[in-house]
């Protein structure tokens, strides 16, 4: 039986504040890709000081975004952390303080749109940078079905990528980010504030 796609929903202001820091977003992404991790391993992967990563891990834990996994520790001094979900997290219209978390994501999207290859991990000729925008008429039910299909694809792909990484850690795998957004088109400015839209 296939595992259900279960990202955790960001519901607390403390979670938003913790996720607002781009380094903590990187640490959480790395932790999700590894399923669990120690500060030293995460620091090595992200080329950051271990004491800084430890601080950020404690902040993520205090916010309830990660938990300690003592069952994976080698001894009593060993601290292993795991994410609440290896399916990542979701933001909804009820999530508090969304701009705090989306600012780093919007910077990432701007770099993608601008073709700023130097802004990304990995070499340009060894990575893929793409933005795809599409539109289509659909009912609310069809939109939900589309969302479910994409989420299932993300879940399956995530599992395969984590398994491949576990099997061969010698292969360089820059961390990729996926942002999926689905919603109706915006109203024109003329309709919402009476201003004249620029061509």
TrEMBL record:
Signal peptide, first to last residue: none
Name of the protein this chain belongs to: Uncharacterized protein
Provenance organism: Microbacterium sediminis
Short name of any one Pfam family annotated for the protein: HTH_20
GO molecular function, one term: DNA-binding transcription factor activity
InterPro entries hit by this protein: ArsR-like_HTH (IPR011991), HTH_ArsR_DNA-bd_dom (IPR001845), WH-like_DNA-bd_sf (IPR036388), WH_DNA-bd_sf (IPR036390)
